Amino acid sequence: MNSQQLGSNQNKLMVGCWQLDDRSWKKISEPDIAHAIDTYISLGVNAFDTADIYGRSEEILGNLLKKRDCQVFTKAVFFSGIPSAMQVRSKIETSLHRLQRDTLDSVQVHWHDSNLDFASTFDTLNELVEQGKIQQIGVTNFNTAMLEKALKFAPIHTHQVQYSLIDRRVEASMQALCLKHNIQLLTYGPLAGGFLSDKFLGMKQPHLQSDHARSFYYSNTIQSHGGWPSTFSMLGTLAEVAQKYDKSISQVALNWVSQQPGVGAVISGLTLSRQQIQSNVEAFGWNLEIEDIELLSRRSAELFIQPGDIYSYERN
Ligand SMILES: NC(=O)c1ccc[n+]([C@@H]2O[C@H](COP(=O)([O-])OP(=O)(O)OC[C@H]3O[C@@H](n4cnc5c(N)ncnc54)[C@H](OP(=O)(O)O)[C@@H]3O)[C@@H](O)[C@H]2O)c1
Predict the structure, then answer these.
(1) Strand, helix or coil at 224?
(2) Measured between alpha carbons, how far is 9 from 187 in angstroms, rounded to an integer?
């Protein structure tokens, strides 16, 4: 699923592997991870998203996918300052080693500080593309000004952003910029960590597990966009639409994201539940009708505020 291959609704699911980082999600054993990955692959899903900072995720994927025809998109995350060329090269060599590959399908760059001058980092990444160590460069959580600047330094193929019926900040200006430059959106958090599913329908207050990123990352999204009452109402509308198609709430939430302009892949986080995996696979390959997409979009616009550009409150 390089950027040329992204796009058919049949095959838009990418498996997010943040869940392999047991500092953010509950610990899962390697046999359980292997079993889940076998299940995804047996159902035709062969694209995975990871990052240098997701605990042992790259290493685990390297072991499990080494003899398989799968694509792995990783990230290079720089939390502070501009790295030297040597630091960038070393980061990429580490990812190559952990993933047991000669070349990385895609490296998505993230900076926490949006005021940095990152031209030199893209120069080094361009050299690594020329040397065949990286197939393509993407970015993640860039705001509009950062992406406009980055386009001067490197060809950007994909942009990974949070996008769901709750979080539609991408629509303010980023989506148009990406469409203009043929940059595919890779969308994370399409289920808001699982909140947009039948499991939370009708819940006046959700039960939060302290060992789960749902509790801190996506509760924060919900709080910043209007609070649980808005999500409670959105789940009601999703349930009505889901009933019409004989689908589940999560399937409708995933399908809605997949049909938004410029979306090349929908990244949903790895789950161990065979039933959830199958349900997520079957969220694609069919289309919500325009009138239902519009109904969901209208309802979401009524319920949720969209504070700022991409990843703005996360950066404080
Ligand atoms: N670039 C960034 O800054 C950034 C930030 C966040 C995420 N990401 C990437 O995007 C990926 C996807 O985002 P995400 O995992 O945070 O959000 P998500 O896909 O909205 O949520 C994933 C969680 O939802 C639950 N789930 C999955 N399928 C379900 C279903 N059919 N019904 C009900 N619940 C379901 C699972 O939890 P249970 O198994 O516990 O049910 C799973 O852990 C991550 O893994 C990561 O690769 C990137």
Answers:
(1) helix
(2) 14
HSE-CB at 8 with a 13 A cutoff on CA atoms is 8
For ligand 1, say whether the CB of 276 is within 6 Å of any of its atoms: yes
| 36 Cβ inside 6 Å of ligand 1 | no
For residue 246, name the pLDDT band (cuts at 50, 70, 90): very high
Task: Give, for 16, the enclosing helix (H) or strand (E).
Answer: strand 13-16
Residue 134 gets which letter from DSSP?
A: B
Distance from residue 270's CA to the centre of ligand 1 (Å): 6
Distance of CA 53 to the CA centre of its chain: 15
- In ligand 1, the atom with minimum distance to the C-alpha of 19 is 45
Binding site membership of 158 for ligand 1 (Cβ less than 6 Å): no
DSSP 104: B
Task: Identify the residue whose tokens are 């947009």.
Answer: 196
CATH-assigned architecture of domain 9-303: Alpha-Beta Barrel (3.20)
pTM of the model: 0.97
Q: Does residue 167's CB lie within 6 angstroms of at least one atom of ligand 1?
A: no
Q: Report the separation in Å between the CA atom of 240 and the middle of ligand 1, taken as the mean of its atom positions.
A: 23
Task: Tell me how far the alpha carbon of residue 270 is from its chain's centroid.
Answer: 11
Q: What is the per-residue pLDDT across 61-74, written as a single tens digit (0 to 9) for each?
A: 999 999 899 999 99
Q: What is the pLDDT of residue 3?
A: 55
Local confidence band at 211 (pLDDT 50, 70, 90 cut-offs): low
Of 25-29, 172-176, 189-193, where does mean pLDDT reach its minimum?
A: 25-29
CA of 120 to the centre of ligand 1 (A): 33
Looking at the DSSP assignment, which residues form a beta bridge with residue 72?
48
Enter the tokens of residue 64.
């499990």
